[in-house]
Design goal:
It contains seven helices and no strands. With 138 residues, it is mainly α. InterPro entries: NusB-like_sf, NusB_fam, NusB_RsmB_TIM44.
Length: 138
């Protein structure tokens, strides 16, 4: 089974969301459930999936520190919807730690994740935060 990077990002979001709710979950089991819901046989886990999930988890504190300055002064990370925060963490991880993903792609993919897993307000919020971050980076 070959997944596109877009599909891998969706699976990474789902894995991170599940791990947020249950940090004790076994990552490998979780990947298998996401990639092979019929449990017909164990499937190979795309390396980029584990790169994203492990990277976001390992750098979560730094990612949150990178995100915070782009939130309005009245917002804190713990007030964000979990979906939005996880999407932003994935995007900031790709922007700062993955060399072969252009900023534009990381931003567009985050907006696509917001469209798929959140609502229109969240999509605009994610787009606004990442737009400020990328402009500031240039």
């Amino acid at each position: 089974m070959s997944l596109t990077r877009h599909e891998i990002r969706e699976k990474a979001f789902q894995a991170l969301f599940a791990l947020n709710a249950n940090p004790e979950a076994d990552e490998n089991e979780l990947y298998q459930q996401l990639l092979n819901p019929d449990e017909t046989a164990e499937v190979e886990i795309p390396s980029y999936l584990s790169t994203l999930v492990t990277g976001v988890l390992e750098h979560q504190t730094e990612l949150d520190e990178m995100i915070q300055p782009y939130l309005s002064s009245t917002w804190s990370l713990d007030r964000l919807a979990k979906t939005d925060l996880i999407i932003l963490r994935i995007a900031f991880y790709e922007l700062n730690y993955v060399d072969d993903v252009p900023s534009k792609v990381a931003v567009n993919e985050a907006i696509e994740l917001a469209k798929a897993f959140s609502d229109d307000r969240s999509r605009k919020f994610v787009s606004g935060v990442l737009g400020k971050a990328v402009t500031n980076e240039a």
